[in-house]
Amino acid sequence: MRMMMRTLHRPAATLAVAILGFSLAGCSSDPAETPTDGTGDESAANIYEFETNGVEPSSEVTVRVPDDLREVMGADAGDMVIDQIVVTAHELEGAQYCAADLSMSYLGNQPLDMIAANETPTDRESAVQTFIDRIPDSGVDDEASVVEWLDSAIEGRIAKGYSESDIADSFEELFGTPVDLESDTYLSPYQDGDTGQDVFDRYVGSASDEQAPGTTIVAESLGLNDAHPQTDLDESAPETGTYVSEDYTTITVVGDCAASATDPDNAIEIELPSVDADGRSDTTATVQLSTMTDGTIGVAGEVKNYMRDANDDWIDS
Questions:
Q1: What UniProt keywords are attached to this protein's entry (predicted)?
Q2: Which residues, including other chains, have CB under 8 Å from residue 243's CB and lie 6 or more apart?
Q3: Which of 58, 95, 104, 297 is the most exposed place for a label (fewest CB within 10 A)?
Q4: Distance CA 178, CA 223 (A)
Q5: Is the pTM of this model over 0.85?
């Protein structure tokens, strides 16, 4: 009855579109020179919209699904979670790892709706529900009434002359065999002198009352693992992982440094998620990011189910 934390599951699908040269933002050292718009003063906007020829590596890149693709996607575009991501360098001490800050712009009430859609019952709640489902009594609807039913069942079986093993067998037939999770050994469902609470606690064991935190749900929706609160990031002694701010608008990803702006072996892959009205999750596109120690950012990407034709128009792939 112990329940594992649920993660977002996405159906496998073929991803189509151009794979482009990329490199993400980074670690220590001086940032790369920022391209200009030709005036010598203002930085040119470096926006990646899954162009066939990509964009030049830069110290800052904005990633977004272009408007013309959203139009082609129709109603599916309304399921998108993210409007755009601005990727910039995050300086770390040393050269062991590189990092990038992802400044997230969400659509609608995201990511709160996505978090709510992916909340699952706690382990203890799942255990209670299992008892409710298997007890032949419609009046049992919460933990207190489960324990009350077990008390009554024990008293009734003792009154009928059931032995300790008879009572244990009757509970095992209804609820299965409890397990000690620490020693990974089976337990008897009932021992002489047990109360209903004793039996319930033996089945529940070390079931957790904790929900999957929003930081984990948001990170996993992006295809990222090892989520932590952003306050856990130590720039002087960084560890690989995903560090999410309390309001989910800034995400720092720490990983290996790329050897070049087109180093696919050290890329960080990020998924742009979508969630439909029923809470089912999918992926709109993937983006590959790699980090260099000079702060250069490059990007490559693929869009699921769509590709550009020879006229640069979006078509089904």
A1: Signal
A2: 227, 228, 229, 230, 232, 233, 251, 252, 253, 254
A3: 95
A4: 35
A5: no
